[in-house]
Amino acid sequence: MNSLMRCATLGGLLALTACHPFNSSPPTMTDELRPFSDYTLELRHNPQPAQAYKITLMLVKPPGPFASIRGVAQYDVMNTECLPPPDANPGGYTSKLSTDESFVLTQVSANQYEGVIHADLMRDEDYIGRGVCHWQLMDVRVRLQATGADGETRFVPTLAPESVLAEQSQTFYFWKGGYPRDEFEDFADGGQPDASKFKPEIRSDLFAIVLTAETVQP
């Protein structure tokens, strides 16, 4: 992943997100909150992240092709005391800082894709003079769509951070009837880890997405 720098503004009731690969527009502040947006910072990647994990995606009995497959890793600042104090926000809410960082999934076989994320991608830093902010990996998500067109079902399996760090594999089951579009426009389907959660009459009409994390040796 390329090292990059982002400018971000903290203020109001927002949980700030630096980039939004799964959304069409970034968060906005209401006019009432703008006067409180006095804190500007730059989000940076570690120049040499060391905690690399290969993420493998395997499709099992897919309902059709997936022309759009995108990956994202979410990172949050855990020690909010390094962010603007509650009295800087209307209502006294504590600021939050979160970022979604895209990663590329490359097809390596008919139904298998691989990509790499870094648990230590974000650089711990003192952004506004209130102490060093410490980032933590929150989850790894993959979004699959038949073509990527608006309104299509988004199949979004998610690996928890403990599963990534423990190099675990998890299987997510989905109903094929939601492909390429569900009855609800732009439906986000997170899947089920247990096929028995589905009604018996549709259990034979499922497909699976397997996500696996594995340490990349230096």
Describe what this molecule looks like in 3D:
The protein has one helix at about 160-165, and strands spanning about 5-10, 15, 40-45, 50-60, 70-75, 95-105, 105-110, 110-120, 135-145, 155, 160, 170-175, 190, 205-215. It has about 220 residues and is an all-beta fold. The chain is globular and about 55 Å long. Mean pLDDT is about 85; it is low at about 1-5 and about 10-35.
Summarize the SSE layout with pairings:
Elements: E1 5-10, E2 15-17, E3 39-44, E4 52-60, E5 68-77, E6 96-103, E7 106-109, E8 112-118, E9 135-145, E10 154-155, E11 158-159, H1 161-165, E12 169-175, E13 188-189, E14 206-215
Parallel strand pairs: 2-6, 10-13
Antiparallel strand pairs: 1-3, 4-8, 4-14, 5-6, 5-9, 7-8, 9-11, 12-14
User: Spans with pLDDT under 50 lasting ≥5 residues?
Assistant: 1-7, 11-36
What separation lies between the terminal Cα atoms?
16 Å
General shape: globular
Q: Kindly name the structural category.
A: mainly beta
Strand content: 35-45%
The number of domains is 1
The biggest beta sheet is recorded as: 5 strands, mixed
What's the count of strands?
A: 14
The helix/strand series, from N terminus to C terminus, equals EEEEEEEEEEEHEEE
Strand order within the widest beta sheet: 2-6-5-9-11
